[in-house]
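ASSEMBLY PREDICTION REQUEST
Request ID: AP-0331
Submitted by: J.K., bench scientist
Number of chains: four
Total residues: 1280
Priority: normal
Notes: Please return the full assembly, not individual chains.
Input sequences:
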Amino acid sequence: MKKIGVLTSGGDSPGMNAAIRAAVRGAIYLGMDVYGIDKGYEGLIDGDISQMNISSVSDILHKGGTILRTARSERFMTIEGQKRAKQMLESFGIEGLVIIGGDGSLRGGLDLSKHGVTVMGLPGTIDNDLAYTDYTIGFDTSVNTVLSAVSNIRDTSSSHERTTVIEVMGRHCGDIALYAGLTGGAETILIPEVGVDINAICRKMVQGRNRGKLHNIIIKAEGVDMSTQELAETLKERTGMETKIVVLGYIQRGGSPTARDRMLASRMAYKAVELLQEGSESRAVGINGDEIVHYELGDALKMKRDYDKQVMELADILSI
Amino acid sequence: MKKIGVLTSGGDSPGMNAAIRAAVRGAIYLGMDVYGIDKGYEGLIDGDISQMNISSVSDILHKGGTILRTARSERFMTIEGQKRAKQMLESFGIEGLVIIGGDGSLRGGLDLSKHGVTVMGLPGTIDNDLAYTDYTIGFDTSVNTVLSAVSNIRDTSSSHERTTVIEVMGRHCGDIALYAGLTGGAETILIPEVGVDINAICRKMVQGRNRGKLHNIIIKAEGVDMSTQELAETLKERTGMETKIVVLGYIQRGGSPTARDRMLASRMAYKAVELLQEGSESRAVGINGDEIVHYELGDALKMKRDYDKQVMELADILSI
Amino acid sequence: MKKIGVLTSGGDSPGMNAAIRAAVRGAIYLGMDVYGIDKGYEGLIDGDISQMNISSVSDILHKGGTILRTARSERFMTIEGQKRAKQMLESFGIEGLVIIGGDGSLRGGLDLSKHGVTVMGLPGTIDNDLAYTDYTIGFDTSVNTVLSAVSNIRDTSSSHERTTVIEVMGRHCGDIALYAGLTGGAETILIPEVGVDINAICRKMVQGRNRGKLHNIIIKAEGVDMSTQELAETLKERTGMETKIVVLGYIQRGGSPTARDRMLASRMAYKAVELLQEGSESRAVGINGDEIVHYELGDALKMKRDYDKQVMELADILSI
Amino acid sequence: MKKIGVLTSGGDSPGMNAAIRAAVRGAIYLGMDVYGIDKGYEGLIDGDISQMNISSVSDILHKGGTILRTARSERFMTIEGQKRAKQMLESFGIEGLVIIGGDGSLRGGLDLSKHGVTVMGLPGTIDNDLAYTDYTIGFDTSVNTVLSAVSNIRDTSSSHERTTVIEVMGRHCGDIALYAGLTGGAETILIPEVGVDINAICRKMVQGRNRGKLHNIIIKAEGVDMSTQELAETLKERTGMETKIVVLGYIQRGGSPTARDRMLASRMAYKAVELLQEGSESRAVGINGDEIVHYELGDALKMKRDYDKQVMELADILSI
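STATUS: Completed
Returned structure:
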């Protein structure tokens, strides 16, 4: 393969720029030409494509977001849009793509691969919701961002002896809540994969208060089957304890990526361009333990994941 | 004066612990005994009072929140509650108080002073809404916390070319929005002191987009006379640009205080104990320019403030 | 086992407190009594031992350093000292120990185990120099601290177009330099495991300058076989480029642990108390991939490690 | 005035970019053309000058360093160099300059003003060593960077019960040491303006140890009349306490500027372009209390400053 493209798609995540840098510099090192595609599939259809060189990716390693920008593309959802994308790649002579994004973006890549484009999928999402990889690019940064917010909230929560419900991102996957909950010392962690047991939460709140605990932090993923507002009101009603809400929102998406996310992104992206250079079929690149792994793209997206029950149990034991 | 007390009241703010440390160590240095009163006026009425020594305030300088905790006290709102507080102080032999809190807390101090207790009020609030002082303890930290959130949000906002409305604290006073807006490079700043001009915001959004701006950050104080939800929807409708909301909430209250807030708190608290030691009447301690100043407590609370129009104009000029 | 002790030894590392917390709460959860031993082996010999409860480890999860403190102990190097330590444990009825520390500390644990004490070793060191585990507790935090310093230095280095040599910790193991180097985008990484090739460094500096690079960051582990001073002078002489030195020192040891270090510490420490509770022999607990693993203590300490050549190659490719 | 230039000179400081942004956008707002001069006086002599527009300064507000870069210029030290600089400005039609830098850089500006160029000097240096202004651009950021390092070092210092001497920047002016010392809770602060009293330091160390203090932090400005090495050895010898050294170096120069430094830079730079637009003579712009002030350039540079004795006394009282 001589010419490849790189694009980012879907919600951005910290470390996408590190992945772009590694894909570009890695591709050039391996003797390929590399093109940046602006605004994901939307830019691909529109031909927002330009060649990148070593300097195109200077001083981006530490930046959040994505210099290639990202967008949702209605047009790419259609066969017609995908054909148009394929034609555009042909007119630039681009044979393979590195696609950095979440589940939906990689599914888009799978669609494109059916039109004869070789696609290397990289898991770029803070949600850690891709079953084929232990960790996604951006997850570690996001958890650390939540930790920093938890630390601030604990200060004020302790001063007032109040309960605070912190809503974090995660529609279907509660990993941000789970990891930030354990490492932030949250008293209760609520994730979409497990139902809400109001009695258990109230019990823990009351026991904590009786033991003289100054604060009570509940970390709740947004996808949990009870609104944060309703939860807070119910807890207040049942325990009589003042209960406040903080919705962290988009601050979880940004920020300079952690060392781990930069490393993950760099290793995965380099593996992706190596695979393209070797003439591999379409693959999804991930990490298993400390090893970079890759699977047939369609297979990877069919895998099912579950949350880590041991981590949840440990969180419960340690937050007594 | 031989025995004094320290309490924190109302919403906590970063730097309160630095103020407590300076009051305690300063008082001891000046030859006085010093008592900590737990949970503000509530603890004062209940006699949650204990003597502090040099080590009581070790390793608290860098901590957010307040080790003396804080609470709202309904009981203290009544004359009866205030008398009870006065009696409690008498039974401990405490003649003077350092009270660290916002407008309401200092008004409580003024009430208490009318029962014969000498009160030194310190402006402990992130809101910067006390007219008698240029800056309050916690304001600088809070603005820097907002800046850090703005930085994260700008990453993701740029990647998506979207508009984000960031709601910050400030019911009556827009200083957090104003200072974080100018220093965070927000395109628009909305404060309670000034009405919302929807047309002006839309114009700026459209002009920015036409000039190729990747992001548009609007910082809005919570007290502005239009809900953040309504604002975002109106902007989206009128400009057709995707508009997201982030409500920063309680993360603005916590966090390790900045150097400036620690300095401010230390200097003000030491001045307060000096005044007590010298037998001064009740005063409010503040900063004017770079000088620590103090006013008769009642007079201080009568002063009116306005927002800094020059800062607003400058923000407008620089965010073209 | 009914009674266990916890101690930290050697240089401290971020995450030790998270490990202490998990050991204490985990042990209590599993029905054991748990004692904290102050100042490592020195305190063990002196009987600085006290029972810990759930509240003993409240609000320490996010703190750097170790609440149990640490010390070097000459006395424990001798058989006599070790016997004394064993007797002290007997007088408290403590049968097993969780020891958190680096190579030397775990070797001390191995010595103690020969006197009939069951020892669970946890890798608590920023150096990542224990062969039996992929990562040590504190390494991730330390690398992120270095990254943050690199970011600051890059600002000023770019403004002056100068070369900066940053010396980081690592006497025998260059992992901090290697990981911070790749993720910080350092132009050159020097580790003790590989010799210094002055010509290669100069070549890269000159090529970078010719390509218009504004800065040149060299990250060098302290254990490299050429002093930082000599290196900087040699580079300046040969290339004519201004070359500055920054020695990061002890800031790498402190700081609030990252999410990853807290997770690692919590999981490892809980495994250690589980093993003690189950009546296991002495083991070293580590992580392999994403799995918590454990080895016979003596075997673990005999393993040999090498640096990750793939990471080094990747760093080289990406820092063109 | 219709055409002005902006340059940064000397050591860089955080906030210089905020000043450049405000000068450029402010000048354009006021109807002037504005040119950026690369690499300070060196670039001025060489004609590295290009026109800037609103977008030239997008997304630089939060960045450390200076996008205009800086350099020392031997050539500009000569009358001939200054004449050459003046000619270069004439050939571009530039009548006035905004110069952001420290004492030496502003003296360069004064020299240039004698050749008929109107110069507005802005205090851009972390050292806070310019007498005519209460604070310089970059000082607040630098103090906060030192605080963050102190916090890390305290963790490890407490764990080992050791003394640490932290050397910070400041050749003639000890303000970084003084402000970071007070706000970081350092036990001892050593500045060039005051001699070293070894006995006093030892006394404090021993008294602290006897009172059970876990750590002892000494913050020392680099310009103090005793080397850090010698100091540490002397203290160790006299007290028998382990004493470590950390030299913070260039990390103090970089980093994203604090809100306060961005505000200071923005206000000062806008005032500078206003003065140019009004046809003012050469001035030095500074801050006095909370007011932006300006003085005749030569007069400003003749002023003498002293350290703040009250702050030093307060630091001493609070660090008992």
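REVIEWER COMMENTS: The mean pLDDT of chain D is 96.
SIGN-OFF: pending second reviewer
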